[in-house]
Design a protein that fits this description.
Helix 8 packs across helix 9 and helix 8 (157-168) packs across helix 12. The protein has 16 helices and 18 strands. By secondary structure, it is an alpha/beta fold. It has helices at residues 3-17, 29-36, 40-52, 76-83, 99-107, 113-119, 129-140, 157-168, 183-192, 208-217, 239-252, 307-317, 323-334, 337-359, 384-393, 424-444; strands at 25-26, 56-59, 63-66, 87-88, 151-154, 174-177, 195-198, 201-202, 205-206, 222-225, 256-259, 281-286, 298-301, 364-366, 373-377, 396-397, 399-400, 414-418. It has a seven-stranded mixed β-sheet, with helices on both faces. The chain folds into three domains: 3-83, Arc Repressor Mutant, subunit A (Orthogonal Bundle), CATH 1.10.10.10; 87-96 and 339-444, Aspartate Aminotransferase, domain 1 (Alpha-Beta Complex); 121-335, Type I PLP-dependent aspartate aminotransferase-like (Major domain) (Aspartate Aminotransferase, domain 2).
């Protein structure tokens, strides 16, 4: 076991035994490091591990404190809760009953030695003609008609985002994004050396004038946007606003990476931004949410004149899709399996949203009846970090709003609830527990 975890275990034991009492302040990290003869970075990892377990909570400007146990008893109950299996509302991998039975028949022909040998060959960025045709048909059903030759494939949608951004923006370049954005885009930007610039938004999405203003301040090399079922707020941008944004990016000549990964849940929704600005928009989507997390195929529809440039980025990043996954996807798209799974997941998401509406009634929750996540603006005095720690102390993992915030100086007191992964009865109990935590903390005036 790592040394920092051993030290964290000893502190957890002190909390469980009552030697460290609820509300007791731990020494500042630099003092803790000096006393233990360890590096300050190791002290930081120890305190982070204690927060992760829900045993302590950091109060900005005050220090780190031992949390009260869920039942009001010192130490022991909290340590037990922290060691219990988590109800994970951070992960968001939708699956429906009978999914494996639906998927299995199409795989049988691929397991013949001759077909398997073909399927296990490396795939090019352009995939196969069959895969391009299948995805083009899928996109046409979503409101975008595109030539199959404009479609490139990656191992997953995250890699498609990375390839598109890498092909568009040099290190040090500026990328306009919504102020709350997909956390992995922050990681991609850091890895590629890109600067994320938050854009002003309203209930409709990014404001076109904010794009123009950011570009005047210093040229934007690209935008990254989630117009449909935005993660984490579930907002969907209207067609009128998309037209306005298309006019703006045409005027500025600014390319866009449009993330459509959750759009399949929104039947009859607005068309993609790519339909209004096909010469500038790089549309990213994938199949893992539609089908299963283990079937990781991403794709990007690129402007006609950028196919080879983006393909080079896919190859240089080592982001090409696997041949077997492509072959399986073609069969599932062609035999109606994907359509059946999408229908089932749409119904599943709506049931889960009804649980949110019931269990979190009276709280400020932003969501969409079609979405697999909800954005909970916490009641005062809760903050995102303290509520996340309190939730974990009750055996529930949620994602703090800070994970989505582009501007570290403006972090929302909110959490995102991923609704897809936990079984429904477990989700219902977790939501009821979280509601109780929020009310108790607000009533006590502590977070």
């Amino acid at each position: 076991m790592d040394d920092y975890r051993r030290i964290a275990d000893r502190i957890a034991a002190d909390i469980a035994s009552g030697r460290l009492r609820p509300g007791q302040r731990l020494p500042p990290q630099r003092v803790f490091a000096r006393r233990r003869g360890i590096a300050p970075s190791t002290a930081g990892r120890i305190y982070g591990e204690l927060v992760r377990r829900g045993l302590v909570v950091g109060e900005v400007g005050r220090g780190t404190f031992v949390r009260a146990a869920p039942d009001g008893q010192p130490g022991h109950a909290l340590a037990e809760a922290a060691g219990a299996p988590l109800v994970n509302l951070e992960l968001n991998y939708p699956a429906v009953p009978g999914q494996s039975e639906l998927l299995a028949p199409a795989l049988a022909p691929l397991l013949r030695p001759d077909a398997l040998g073909q399927a296990l060959r490396p795939a090019a960025a352009a995939g196969t003609p069959e895969a391009r045709q299948a995805v083009a048909a899928l996109l046409e059903g979503c409101g975008l008609r595109t030539g199959p030759e404009r479609i490139l494939f990656t191992g997953n949608a995250r890699q498609a985002i990375a390839a598109a951004l890498a092909s568009l923006v040099r290190p040090g370049g500026r990328v306009g994004v919504e102020p709350l954005t997909y956390p992995l885009v922050r990681e991609i930007a850091a890895r590629l050396g890109l600067i994320l610039v938050p854009l002003a938004t309203d209930a409709e999405g990014p404001l076109p004038e904010s794009v123009a203003a950011a570009h005047r301040s210093a040229p934007l090399s690209a935008l990254y946007l989630q117009p449909t079922l935005h993660n984490p707020t579930s907002r969907t941008t209207s067609a009128d606003r998309l037209r306005q944004l298309a006019d703006t990016v045409h005027t500025l000549g600014t390319p866009v990476v449009e993330d459509r990964i959750w759009s399949f849940l929104h039947p009859g929704g607005t068309p993609p931004l790519a339909a209004f600005a096909p010469g500038l928009v790089h549309l990213v989507d994938g199949l893992s949410k539609r089908i299963a997390p283990g079937l990781a195929v991403g794709f990007v529809v690129v402007p006609e004149n950028r196919v080879e440039t983006v393909a080079r980025a896919v190859r240089s990043g080592g982001w090409s899709a696997g041949g077997f996954a492509l072959e399986a996807a073609v069969r599932w798209l062609g035999d109606g399996t994907v359509d059946r799974l999408v229908d089932a997941k749409r119904r599943d998401a709506r049931r889960r949203q009804r649980l949110v509406a019931e269990r979190l009634a009276g709280f400020t929750v932003r969501s969409d009846p079609a979405a697999y996540f909800a954005w909970w603006e916490l009641p005062p005095p809760w903050r995102a970090d303290t509520f996340t720690a309190a939730a974990r102390a009750h055996g529930i993992a949620v994602t703090p709003g800070t994970a989505f915030s582009v501007d570290p100086g403006r972090t929302p007191d909110a959490v995102r609830l991923g609704l897809a992964s936990a079984p429904e009865p477990e989700l219902a109990r977790a939501l009821a527990t979280l509601a109780g935590v929020a009310r108790d903390g607000a009533a006590a005036g502590t977070g």
